[in-house]
Amino acid sequence: MQRFFLVLVTIFSLWLPAGAQSYAQKMASAVMHLWPDSFSVTPGRPARWSYDQGVILKGIEGIWLTTGDPKWFRYIQHSMDYYVREDGSIKDYDPDTYNIDHVNNGKVLLTLFRVTGKEKYKKAVVKLREQLNTHPRTHEGGFWHKKVYPWQMWLDGLYMGQPFYAEYAQVFGEDSVFNDVTRQFVLMEKNARDPRTGLLFHGYDESRSQQWADKKTGRSPHFWGRALGWYGMALVDALDYFPDGHPGKKQLVAILNRLAAAVVKVQDGATGMWYDVVDLPERRPNYTESSSTAMLAYTLAKGARKGYIAASYRANAKRAFDGLVKYKLSQTNGMLNLEGTVSVSGLGGKPYRDGSFEYYMREKVVQNDPKGMGAFILAANEIEMMPGLATGSGKTVLLDQYFNNEWRKGAGGQQERWHYTWNDRSNGGYAFLGSLFEQHGARLRSLAEAPAAANLKDAAVYIIVDPDTEKETADPHYMNGQYATQIADWVKKGGVLVLMANDAGNSDIQHLNILAGRFGIRFNEDNLLMVKNNDYEMGRVNIPTGNIIFKNAKNVYLKEISSLNLYKNASSVLKSNDVTVMAVARYGKGTIFVLGDPWIYNEYVDGRKLPLQYENFKAAKDWVHWLLSTSIKNQKK
To answer: How much is the pTM?
Structure first.
């Protein structure tokens, strides 16, 4: 089956030369070549609403977040627009089948809704959420895998339903849903986990009526690799949306730690991969399987990056991905292929699948299976972040929500914070910026209270952006001498402070100058770089060679900013027509960066609006790296 293989890795390193296309991008390019317009697993057959596509598109979303190149977002949107009509109805989706697989693509629709705000995506998302309202459940409350598989929970189903369910809960303000999401993972582990190995069996039949189900435990006979991968990916993805204080988050992290400890024990020592039936490597004709390896590599790499499991698991993830690159990649006419993915494996049905070892070995192993390709892209995104994680490792980036405290009605009618917040994926949010910090290994937090020694002490970087005026907030919080002293004391001990205002009249600059003045900087409360319509050249600011912050970007786009007046030891780091637009200052062991604009909110970083010749995304990466590298304050363990 395997034809000829590329030598894609040297004996020294996995990493590609600067400027080369990453493995994630190469595989995504192959996907776009195979499925340019719509998604059909079998060539020649009509495209169908399929969970496979959601795996691929979430991987491609990760590429968009790491490149700022809009072509990746356009492909995601184009792919989903084939199915989603203007009234929100979804082509080829039938809720009455109660198939949990059909919910998976809702994650992609949530991305499209949150980024574009288009009503059709919201309506489609709500339809998928409504399926979960009436989806049949076990007596304990677990979602059936499908209506045609009564009383059964499969590991696969956790990935299909729970990350979507959790993100929907966050976006639509359904806080009680997090309890239900937690319950699904807890029930799956309780009923499918083998106490001897810690591994989870592929499925569980509460009724014990299936031929494949153990009459005592209800469990299927074997540990299928991809099922473990689905479950692991579900955990690390659902955790993205859990509130920090929710008790379910601690439960899910504990489950993830048990899973990680179990799967690395059956990782193949020779290849770094996992076998299709993971605990029987010596039994022929068992084989190393690509999708399970990619999924578990993603699980371990992301889990370690987010701090859910020990950092040492990165080595296991890297070995797994190295194995994929070495043994499972081939090339045809310059296009990357992924070999060695089992096309499907299930339980029951017609013809009947008995869950035996012999059954798993009978399923076809194919080239360029979309589930495998999508999982490979997801894993590659995580592995390719690894060299940069040390920059922000152990460091927390704290975003103010006390001075900037704007609220709006959320998607579900709830009141929610917005405008320069980590969770806001619309034009005025900082989701892209937050992703860049996370790609450098940093942790994100927000501060809704007044700054004080106790709540600043663990932050490495503290960002205050666009303090509110009375027209923006009914009860604005103003900077004062007491707050300025608390913040200055924190900077003196090694913190990096970021102050970003706005043009005159759109930010409380007067009070912010109380703090900026401590470091020899004043916002001038003027209006510079007044861009008319979309005449972007009016906002271009060129970056001279040798800039201390921007090592790769050659220009940035800035619009309607306040210029800066510098004294004491503050110095300019970027000018427009001899007027300072960015400045830095040292204060004790710490550093201050100041700019009279919120600057890198999503609209001017994600590539969807700003032409790519303006290098805001590249500049943002330089800036994030500089902020984290400059900080000497680490988060306490």
So the answer is: 0.94
User: Averaged over 31-55, what is the pLDDT?
Assistant: 85
Instruction: Select which of 69, 81, 96, 156 is catalytic.
Output: 156
The yes-or-no verdict on residue 11 having pLDDT over 90 is no
CA distance 246 to 58: 25
Alpha helices in 411-569 (DSSP H): 431-439, 453-456, 481-492, 509-516
Contact 494, 590 (CB under 8 A): yes
Say which residues have a Cβ less than 8 Å from residue 476's Cβ, sequence separation at least 6: 403, 405, 467, 468, 469, 470, 508
- By the 8 A CB rule, do 188 and 153 touch? yes
Structure tokens at 200: 């989870």
| DSSP sequence for 251-310 | HHHHHHHHHHHHHHHTS-TTTS--BSBTT-TTSTT--B-HHHHHHHHHHHHHHHHTTSS-
SS3 (DSSP) at 544: coil
User: Taking the CB of residue 434, how many other CB atoms lie within 10 A of it?
Assistant: 22
- Per-residue pLDDT of 21-40, as tens digits, reads 799 999 999 999 999 887 76
Residue 593, φ and ψ in degrees, nearest 5: -115, 135
Which residues, 6+ apart, have CB-to-CB distance to 243 below 8 Å?
175, 178, 249
Q: Is 156 a catalytic residue?
A: yes
Q: Is 11 exposed, middle or buried (0-12, 13-18, 19+ CB in 10 A)?
A: exposed
